[in-house]
Specification:
Blueprint: E1 19-25, E2 41-46, E3 52-53, E4 58-60, E5 67-69, E6 75-76, E7 88-89, E8 94-98, E9 113-118, E10 128-134, E11 144-147, E12 153-155, E13 162-168, E14 173-179, E15 186-195, E16 198-207, E17 213-220, E18 222-224, E19 230-232, E20 236-247, E21 250-259
Antiparallel strand pairs: 1-2, 1-11, 2-8, 3-7, 4-5, 4-9, 6-8, 9-10, 11-12, 13-14, 14-17, 15-16, 15-20, 18-19, 20-21
Pfam families: LTD
Protein name: LTD domain-containing protein
Organism: Candidatus Shapirobacteria bacterium CG10_big_fil_rev_8_21_14_0_10_40_9
Length: about 260
């Protein structure tokens, strides 16, 4: 079943400080309110050309009474959460804010929640900087994340690429369905098999533009003339499919095999 992310439209009340929510972990391995570096955390990204000190800024979940104030005791920007801590988000960089035992700020693991960033407590006139709402249950260790950092769309951690590879025996052909691929820009496929001990194959590339899934059928296991006459390969035992999905973050390879 496909799972959907819902983003609440709160942009009319937001002010652009250059700093945005970039990633958060609602359901960490272990105790949600464990001491840092365990437990829940939220990462901020600075899109501006200058460092930004966010000391005193506040994270909220859905409730205004659930307050997590950002200070040196719960924040880190250098990958060393055991030092004295930092509250500066470097230009083009990240600050991680840990829940670190806080008793009221809590991101729901089962029914969805909202993460909100303010430049001061709401009770003191703080202004909404950024927010994100999710409405799905989240598996342990899965984070929501912008891709690319700072400016990209939020990605659902539960949707991972998957491919179904199947025979179309009435056509002496195969097909595949790839899903969970909306974050990729290119799909390369290679179908290979042996026919009477001779290597045969079909290769191609599909340029993607945000599709959640695609289906490609009628890869003929043989050769067909322009007039429509086909000669099908025989002596096939196993057919192998290799798919390589590409985006700016790298590549993911999916492989399947079916018996003919």
């Amino acid at each position: 079943m496909e799972k959907q992310i819902t983003i609440t439209a709160t942009t009319s009340a937001q002010v652009d400080f250059g700093v945005v929510l970039n990633e958060f972990l609602p359901n960490p391995v272990g105790d949600d309110k464990a001491s840092k570096p365990g437990g829940e955390w939220v990462k901020l990204y600075n899109n501006s050309p200058s460092p930004k000190d966010v000391s005193g800024w506040v994270l909220y979940d859905t409730y205004d009474s659930h307050v997590l104030v950002i200070d040196v005791s719960n924040s880190d920007n250098n990958g060393n959460p055991s030092d004295s801590g930092e509250t500066v988000v470097p230009a083009g960089g990240i600050l991680t804010v840990y829940r670190d035992g806080d008793g009221d700020f809590e991101l729901n693991n089962t029914g969805g929640d909202t993460v909100r960033l303010y430049n001061a407590p709401i009770s003191s006139g703080g202004v909404l900087v950024d927010s994100f709402t999710y409405k799905i249950a989240v598996n342990e260790g899965k984070s929501f994340k912008r891709q690319p950092d700072g400016t990209g769309a939020w990605k659902d951690p539960e949707v991972e690429p998957f491919v179904d590879f199947y025979l179309q025996p009435e056509k002496a052909a195969v097909g595949f369905k790839a899903s969970g691929i909306s974050q990729y820009q290119k799909l390369n496929y290679e179908i290979s098999y042996q026919a009477r001990e001779k290597e045969e194959g079909i290769m191609g590339t599909i340029n993607l533009s945000g599709e959640e899934e695609i289906t490609r059928d009628s890869f003929t296991l043989g050769t067909c003339s322009t007039g429509g006459t086909c000669v099908y390969h025989s002596g096939i035992d196993v057919i192998h499919l290799k798919i390589i999905l590409e985006n700016l973050d790298g590549k993911v390879t999916l492989e399947r095999e079916i018996n003919y």
